[in-house]
Each structure stands twice: as C-alpha cells, then as structure tokens.
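Entry 12.
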Amino acid sequence: MPRSSDPPYYIVGLPDEPVEAAEAKMKFERLADELCRVYPFIEEVRAVVKSKKAVKDHARYEVSVEVYTPRDRHSFEESGHNVAKVFDLMGPKMKRLLSSKQSRVTRSHGESPRKDSD
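Predicted 3D structure (tokens):
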C-alpha cells in the first residue's frame, strides 16, 4: 500500500572530503527520492559507504544499499574510486531489479503483466 509520507533514507560513512561527500549525498538522495516515487511500497532506503585505501592518495569505496519493502529486503553492492559515480552505477541496477520483483509480485496476485506498445 502506498505511504502518505516519504519513507526515510539514510547514508552512513561518507568520505571526509566535503565536496565529494556533498555530491555523493545529493546523488543518493536523488536516487532514493526517485525510487520512492516509482515504487511507492518502499519503506526505507539505507546506504553504507566503506573506504579502503588502495593507493597512497586514492581510496576505493565499497557501497552497499538496502531497500526495505513490506515483504522483502533488497541488497545492492558496488565499488569504485568515486562515491558519486558508484551511486550513478547502482541506480539502473536497483531500478531494474525492483521492477522485476514488482512484476513477479503483481503476477502472483492474479493480474496479468502490462505490455507496452512501442
């Protein structure tokens, strides 16, 4: 059932660099807002960023995002050297997986899947 208010979303472990952290936070918030608009059954979106020093001055970031729905918890993981780009890479994967999950749920409730005409 759709919620009347926006579901909460959280991000933990942003880098110390203020510009990179602000850009990553903005990308995550935009992704979470878009997901919640498209899939109103989402209850919570949570991201954890872990930093690993790969080279002297470059960090490698491991990002894991969990999306909570009334029935399931969906986990997504991605890594890279720029946190904002990692969120850009995760977006299409998350949307694709959530849409396939929703279509299976819809079919299990007796409705036929919609076919788009091109």
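Annotation: Confidence is low (pLDDT under 50) at residues 103-113. Residues 17 and 23 are 10 Å apart (CA to CA).
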